Amino acid sequence: MDPVLADLLSLLRPEKIKEDVFRGESRDIGTPQVFGGQVLAQALAAAAQTVEAKRSPHSLHAYFLRRGDVGAPIDYEVDRARDGASFSNRRIVAVQEGRQIFHMAASFQRVETGVEHHAEMPDVPGPGGLTDRFDVDAAVLAQLHEKMQSYLSRKRPFMVRPVRQLDFLKPEKLEPVKHVWIRSVDALADDLLLHQLLLAYVSDYELLGTATLPHGVNFTSSNTQMASLDHALWFHRDFRIDQWLLFSFDSPNTSGARGLARSMVFTEQGELVASSAQEGLIRVRD
User: Fold this and answer.
1) What is the CATH number of the domain that holds 50?
2) Nearest 5°: phi and psi at 191?
3) Which is catalytic among the residues 228, 248, 251, 276?
4) For the chain, which terminal residue's Cβ has fewer other Cβ atoms within 10 angstroms, N or C?
5) Residue 116 lies inside a defined structural domain of this protein
6) Do the domain assignments include residue 229?
7) Distance between CA atoms of 144 and 26, rounded to whole angstroms?
8) Which of 187, 179, 245, 224 shows the shortest CA–CA distance to 32?
9) pLDDT digit of tens for each residue in the chain (286 aa)?
10) Domain count, the chain
11) Is 196 part of the annotated catalytic residue set?
12) Out of 196, 204, 263, 276, which one is annotated catalytic?
């Protein structure tokens, strides 16, 4: 298996240190703090260890309280709020160096069938022939600040192919809508929870940046501060993240130095498998 993906899989197995408390390590991916998707996925993995195997996560709702330190472990304290006939609910608090940095509620459900419908997938080009977000021309990379060069140059466990590439040097003012194809760089085991954990991780990719599109700034702009404040994710249907998934993003609002962004996640066959929403801090300084 690709070593970067294998390392991520090991990262998403927090160690049980005592009853209902689990410890996770972090990786520096070039962001100023611990990557939010990592904390989401580790918290969900910790909660899943306290739920019977026949129940799968269907939703999570989280708040990011403080920046996480990449150099220190994170403890995930799980409260078994409820185990009912069909649903299990867990509350998770992430603690680092004695301070709470993250809260999450997650709900798990046994397999059931019922009425079905879903939104239609947007009519956009498929992933074949598109360029990866992080295949940045050397001449462009050289003009970005050092930390951004490091961030864009790192090997990643996912392929990320936007239908429309960003201009890192001269961001345009665009409609707050974008479409991005994402899949893992290597094949994975037939384990639904594993694919859900990886989707939770990658659900923090690209999302908040959608809210900056109408304003001619992006995450590479040195005068822009961006950070996740909260995050919600719903799993609708089974899927595999080692097969291409289309993330269809939009942003209905920015105000009060905050931006709201949403996504729907589709298979190549057009099935809606997940949805997410996030509000984040967006500050643009003169």
Assistant:
1) 2.40.160.210
2) -140, 105
3) 228
4) C
5) no
6) yes
7) 26
8) 224
9) 999 999 999 999 999 999 999 999 999 888 778 999 999 999 999 999 999 989 999 999 999 999 999 999 999 999 999 999 999 999 999 999 999 999 999 999 999 999 999 999 999 999 999 999 888 888 888 877 777 777 777 889 999 999 998 887 788 899 999 999 999 999 999 999 999 999 999 999 999 999 999 998 877 776 788 899 999 999 999 999 999 999 999 999 999 999 999 999 999 999 999 999 999 999 988 7
10) 1
11) no
12) 204
Domain that holds residue 192: 3-111+126-284
Is position 118 within any domain? no
Active site residue 278: yes
pTM over 0.90: yes
Is 144 a member of any domain? yes
Which own/partner contact pairs does 12-18 have at CB distance under 8 Å and 24+ positions apart?
12/41, 12/42, 12/45, 12/194, 12/197, 12/198, 12/201, 13/45, 14/42, 14/45, 14/46, 14/49, 14/76, 16/49, 17/75
**φ/ψ of residue 186, rounded to 5:** -145, 165
Q: In what order do the strands lie in the sheet with 21-24?
A: 15-18, 21-24, 74-83, 87-96, 99-110, 55-64, 224-235, 272-284, 258-267, 245-255, 177-184, 158-162
Rounded to 10 deg, the angle between the 192-202 and 3-11 helix axes is 100
What single letter denotes the amino acid at residue 265? V
Tokens for 113?
């069938």
